Fold each of these.
Amino acid sequence: IDLARRPDEPGQRALLGEFGHGRVNFRGIAQMVMLPPGSYQLRGEYKGQTVGRRGLEWHINCASGGKLIAKTPMATGSTPEWTEFTATFTIPETDCRAQEIRLWFDARSASEQLITGSMWYDKLQIARSQ
């Protein structure tokens, strides 16, 4: 995982995850945020190609207790053009003062940890829902 120069936009950088051949034990990357209670939308775009039974997702969890409050659709296979994704979620009134946004490789078993390829993510943002 790295912030790499976008080949299609000189001077711009994006998040790049590259996976070699074999089993991957990717624990993800995360950012802690403190959003007040309310409705939100995580937005961004991705492109790339991976080969494997499972793919990458963005998870939004309450930091205390780890309760999953949203996740994006899984990015897997071939997506050669920048493709938008969204996840709408609500921060509850109680027990979720801080939140963790995590890019996660959703492998549920050893055989699902086999992945190769790369995936780019850019233009990530969290905005209040209207």
Amino acid sequence: MGKTLLIISGGIEAVPGIQLAKEMGLYVVVSDRSPDAPGFEHADDSIIACTYDVDETVQKAKHYHETVRKFDGAMCIASDVPLTVASVANELGLPGIPIASAELAMDKMAMKIKFHKDGVPVPKFEKIENRNQLEEIIKNWGYPVVIKPADSRGARGVLRLTKEVDLEWAWAHSKENSPTGRVMVEKYLEGPQVSTESMMVDGNCYTVGFSDRNYEFLEKYAPYIIENGGDLPSYLPYKIQEDIKIIIEKAALSMGITNGIVKGDIVVHDGKPYVIELAARLSGGYFCTHEIPMNTGVDLVGNAIKMAIGERLDLNDLLPKFNKNICQRYIFPKPGILNEINGLDELENNSSIKYFNLHVKPGQKIERPTAHPSRAGMVIATGESREDTRINAKTAIEAIKFSYQT
């Protein structure tokens, strides 16, 4: 009997990883709370359990493990549930990161405190209890600052505050997006931001994903911080990229992660990198499943699957084989009720577009973006140069024509 892998997330972005695990000869069980989760269609078996409910998932995974088929590993793909994964792994004696590490990954405030204690560079931060405290911090720090829930996901409740933003509303908005009602503020550092994806192996960090984040809509959707994809390879100087890799390893070790995936959000301010956040999971947005292998030839997800089931990795598999131009951009239709969508056939016949998806449909009401789940779809383009690649992505999105009900 082949090895059995539990993937705790059945969303559409997990599907490529589920398919890959199947191609690797694994028996794949997917857990998700929705009976209609896209991942179930590609799995060998399913468990209905909320990915965010640690106790429910542990209980049902344990029952399956003891009565149906023993698991050899557990992981998540494009879902921010490292605590659920770590708890299942701990309960069933599977490979995985420590529960304490996963708890840090789910609590941005606790993470920043630990980083600061261990000398990992982070933006100035504070926990805030009320609007008056927020006003006092802004008086001392100056604008802009970022207010965010201490424990939310997908940029929900994350705001960039300038003097135009109502602080009472901002405080309430961030608080209502925190499951525990906890809010923090940090100094907004000007400078380029990068998304990274790394694998920790026996305490050593191998950063294989390195994308320059695109915030061209920072003012358009203010005060919400809406990212519009990224560009690979990075244009940052080699020295800064190496500095970033060093602090990612330091941050991962600070969190107690010696074997596992870490996804970094990094800002470079005045030539120095700072850690905004470090997630203990494979990324969403098709970064891990599509962009990294297209850019470098490294099968990060395949290696993460091997680690999850306890197989030893060949470190040569984590070394880039090439460095191709890749541009990812998201699709943001204007607000309104969709009537028709045309032009997708042009994307299907466009050789520079390596992947695209659109998950809105006629009759659906489009709202102004307020968080990452607001995005309507995305394209991944390639090209001869960085600029060509960006133009190809932009041209592809402009080919999609949305009409609206009047």
Amino acid sequence: MAYSWPRASPPPSPAGPHVVESPLFERVGSGVRCLVCRRRCTLREGAWGLCKNRFAKGGKLYVATYGLLSAAESRPMEIKPMYHFYPRTSALTISGWGCNFPCAWCQNWHLSKVVVYSGAYTPPERVVEWALENGDSGINVSFNEPTMLLEYTVDVFKRAAGLHKSINTNGYLTREALDALIAAGMEGANVDLKGGPETYRRWLAADFHGVVDTIQYLWGRGVHVEVTYLVIPGVNDHEADAVVEAVAKVDRSIPLHITAFRPAHLMPHVPPTPVQLLEEIWQRARRELDYVYVGNVPGHKAQHTYCPKCGALLIKRFADRVVEVKLDGKRCPKCGHEIKIRGHIGHYGNLYRQFI
């Protein structure tokens, strides 16, 4: 077991357009408590949170990386993966720096394990302009943990009328942060459920039930939710049933993506997830959930959407693209069963165009 927190040397007095006050805090004595993520760091004057993105000053909380983007690129919703959220559309996808989880297996460690306090500042309205210019249907915050860009994301979403808005998150946000995103227009979220209670306790110094609560809360507020479970041999593969049970207790129509691990970061020695293991979990999960997928295995039959009532093939995918749609509106043309889909089935923009 190894923790991998972001590495950074925060400047003593950061300044510039990327340093803004955060509304999500409360005063605690002479310090402040951050209310952005569920770790709720309590900070004395001048101290920085565990994520190295926020600090206390003058009895207030500030974020020092507002608008400092690490990436901006057009991507299909299917790669998120979000299969039931505006299928066959693309989103201008942005990311910041750092994370509030210490995952040793991080697949985007080059963004999540460092924090940068300088660089070109991107105003929120510019992100919206990029999306419209590129023909994207939405905006997504991903790659690293979007909680790091919470205040910026809220401001981007408020300006993004007519575009769908979503995040890919580890789900360790406070309800105050979730409320701010929902009020700004967030419609969808893919939440990583990284295992069961043991995985969160041993590997993440976090609370499994906190993430499940986020899924439940978002779903209850009308946000479209999909869940990703990255199956890591010898780490969290023994808790697959706990993951499926947690999702099913919220709603059996929530799509679950069972995804193959690829050796990365502090785990280059861990082998990729065997396809047979993914298929075994997929078969078990389909008894409890309507929509279950296998990810990171291009060409696998479990990339497609099947009618949960009659089994008809409805949406065919290959890798990160939709290649065929057989729906009658949002219903199965064979039996008439309504398929759980948020938004319209649209068209991709100029995919993988990079703006940063």
